Amino acid sequence: MHGTPFTVAFLGPLGTYSHQAAYDRFGNTVGYYECKTITEVFNAIASKAVQAGVIPQENSIYGTVIETYDALRKQNVGFIRGEIVLKVQHCLLVRGGVKPEEIQCIKSHEQALGQCRGFLTKNFPNASLEKMASTAAAAEAILTSPKCAAICSKLCATLFNGLEILYEGIQDQNSNFTRFHVLTATQDVELPPPAYPAPSQTHGLVRLTARRDVTPRAPPINQILAALDLTVSRLDRRPQLDSPFPFCDVYFAELEKGDSSASWHSAVEDAMKRVKALGVEAELLGLW
Ligand SMILES: O=C(O)C(=O)Cc1ccccc1
User: Fold this and answer.
1) How far is the CA of 46 from the centre of ligand 1 (A)?
2) What is the complex's ipTM, to 2 decimals?
3) What is the pLDDT of residues 147-162, one digit of tens each?
4) Which domains does the chain carry?
């Protein structure tokens, strides 16, 4: 008898950077499940329609992927189990034969539009910019919008018949990397081993919520970080949507293991206990 094949959700369609990142990690050992938005990837994991998902998290030029952190504010959002870093080289694609001077609009994912802002301002100051759900969705859309171009990967020129590359390497810095998270519904879902040697666990993500409606004298973030007393390698902040007070935030502290030989999991659990003793909510969103 065959079990359910291990299936990985990603922001589709085929040809997105998320697809490439997922393939780099899982290769042809798993089934794939295309989603239309990043939020849909989170939903597919939470509803157990898939066993894992790949989510873009940050880019070295344009920074945080906002939709990802907004989703990470929810309860039972899944658990981060790994990361994939992908080198990103953007191309400008058009329908075959379209000249640069004919381009009136440029479509892509907001991250890609942001990563190429300098190029777009210099070369297409009058074109309108249209945010799409993904880079490959933009490539697909220009098949039926001849006056538009798409920012996407070179791979899309092969995947979508009738498109050609007008410019290559158009992002504002030659060095451009996106980091993706591998998510499962819970910590105990068994992941297929990566083709490369699995790195030992050195990262953690903790969500920190100081609730002024519950604890009016909620401590400021510097006191919360001092109580964590671990290396915080990255800190993100998004508005707390259900707070009756304006300008209350949720913080996401990415932790990095130091030299200590103690168990990383228990070091993070102990740090969370110190934070909770201040009356602050601390939830573990990932260990990898
Ligand atoms: O739209 C895509 O291809 C994605 O996977 C999101 C994204 C967009 C731009 C750079 C990295 C990831």
Assistant:
1) 22
2) 0.97
3) 999 999 999 999 999 9
4) 7-86+177-184 (3.40.190.10), 91-168 (3.40.190.10), 203-287 (3.30.70.260)
